[in-house]
Amino acid sequence: MAKPNDNGFEPKIVAFLCRWCSYAGADLAGVSRMTYPDNIIPMRVNCSGRVDAGMVMAAFERGADGVLIGGCHPGDCHYVNGNYKTRRRVILLKRALAEVGIKPQRLHLEWISASEGVKFQRTVTEFTRLIKGFGPSPMSEDGKN
Amino acid sequence: MGKIKVGIYWAASCGGCDVSLLEIDEQILDVAAKADFVFWPCATDTKYSDLRAYQDGSIDVVLFNGAIRTQENHDLARLLRDKAKHLVAYGSCAQMGGVIGLANLSSRKEIFTTLFGEKSLWPQEESNQDGYPLHLPAFLERVLPLVDVVDVDYVIPGCPPPKEMVSKFFEALLEGKLPEIGAVFAAEKNLCDECPRERKEERITRIVRPHEIEPKQDSCLLDQGIICMGPATRGGCGAVCPLANMPCTGCAGPTANITDQGATMLNAIASLIGTGLEGEEELEAEEAILAEIDDVIGTFYRFSLAASIFKGAQREQRG
Fold this sequence. Notes:
The structure holds 2 protein chains of 2 kinds.
Chain A: E1 13-18, H1 22-31, E2 40-45, H2 53-61, E3 66-71, H3 82-100, E4 107-111, H4 117-134
Parallel strand pairs in A: 1-2, 1-3, 3-4
Helix pairs in contact in A: 1-4
Chain B: E1 4-10, H1 16-20, H2 27-34, E2 35-39, H3 48-53, E3 59-65, E4 68-70, H4 71-83, E5 84-90, H5 92-96, H6 108-116, E6 126-129, E7 132-135, E8 139-144, E9 154-156, H7 163-174, H8 240-243, H9 261-272, H10 279-291, H11 296-300
Parallel strand pairs in B: 1-2, 1-3, 3-5, 5-9
Antiparallel strand pairs in B: 4-8, 6-7
């Protein structure tokens, strides 16, 4: 593992987790007593397809330094195709973020199933480290010039 | 009772809004019979000092077009708010920043550097020209919609506002039947509701620009791969652009329930694209389709960037 970035900055990360897979994966990580950074603010949504572009933008507007979206693996969506919609949305959103000057890596989409507690732990740990390295989002109070 | 007093001001605008007033054809005679234009820099020689001399609230209605780009625009918005009984955001720029709002993708410094070069050549707010002091209004860091500076009573959207909306407004004004504060002189539903083109396909399998194909007359432009902002845009114009084979670009702004027009359209496009392929092939094909959108912000936020959640460029600090 790379050396954790220790610049004293504790990012706020909003994690939209789908109820059927990723939120259950987070639960599994919890009941298995795995540890991961407490920077994430989990938001349970019924489907990753529920996470519309406006919700991601609103999270950044209200001070999130990073946004994580967790959904079911392709083919596993409880609502058949919600995660595919999110995947396309994230492609466009990342480009929109880049065009307004926000690092597109601040938005991350990951497929985490209900049995992947370890993957949840790893994803959150790595994403938190990445955002720590980036510093505050330019839309957050700390990041405003 | 005297004539209705009307003021018209252009802030950061192209002048198209002022011209659009004439689109109401012979109704302009009714307007001229019942109303006096007490302040209209585009058409009459009125000075700011004349405007300041009016009592507060003495101008019945002020149609304000253009975005807030300079301190002068900002100050006039404040002044006109004081003098006007009713202040109307007229056109996309006053309503949402409009096309001018796209300048928010660049900072003041970047704009000045591009225009004037090194800093010593930038225009100064205070300077001396041949012994006379010259004051220029400050250029604000960001373009703002009117509503960010003062309270706005009514909105007449559009770039420029189409005849129907302007006509509806003057009708209400002349009859003394202006609606409740906050009314928008356009439809409540989105543009697709009044567009005669028929939507047949379930999925978009390609994205093209309007000049690349000859669109079929009767079917939905989105079906044919042209990005049409109809789903995220307020109707009321009679779908004039789609009827002329051009896609809606969103000038009327979002419907009442939408906070961010671009985000809504982005969602719609992402949901509509589909290839019928599977696995990695599908992902690659979707990425290729989406790559055809050249300019995400310019496409989805052509008129609404300054009023969007982003408001403009955000600069990453080096962390």
